[in-house]
Amino acid sequence: MELQEIRNRWNEVLDAVLEVDRVSWLAFFDARLADFDGKVLTLDFSDARKLSSSHEFSQTRLKQQQILTQTIKSVLAIDVEISER
């Protein structure tokens, strides 16, 4: 699957994430799909972070990434890893 194909169906993925966990949906709603190399999907949050202060939510983010990867597998039938910028 190519990055553009994921972009074309991203709202479908987000809708499915919303059904599982609203907080995760909010976390990924502002993400830009920056790159996909066939395995690693890179999300860019630079716009969302430019007005925020620094916080540490690594445990929460890991859970959210697991929800996202499971949802992508369910909706798009591909296995991905998530990378964030």
Please render the helix and strand layout as text:
Blueprint: H1 3-8, H2 10-20, H3 22-29, E1 32-36, E2 40-44, H4 46-49, H5 58-76, E3 81-84
Parallel strand pairs: 2-3
Antiparallel strand pairs: 1-2
Helix pairs in contact: 2-3, 2-5, 3-5
What oligomeric state do the depicted chains represent?
A: single chain
Class from helix and strand fractions: alpha+beta
- Total number of strands: 3
Computed over alpha carbons, the radius of gyration is 12 Å
Specify the helix fraction band: 55-70%
Strand order of the largest sheet: 1-2-3
Please describe the biggest sheet, giving its number of strands, its sense, and whether it closes into a barrel.
Answer: 3 strands, mixed
- Shape, per Cα inertia axes: globular
Question: What is the strand content?
Answer: 15-25%
Q: Topology as H/E string?
A: HHHEEHHE
Mean pLDDT: 87
Describe the protein in words.
- The chain is an alpha+beta fold and 85 residues long.
- The chain has helices at 3-8, 10-20, 22-29, 46-49, 58-76; strands spanning 32-36, 40-44, 81-84.
- Strands 1-2-3 form a 3-stranded mixed β-sheet.
- α2 packs antiparallel against α3 (22-29), α2 (10-20) packs across α5 and α3 crosses α5.
- The chain starts with a helix and ends with a strand.
Quick structural gist:
This protein is of the alpha+beta class. 56% of the residues lie in helices and 16% in strands. It is built from five helices and three strands, in the order H-H-H-E-E-H-H-E.
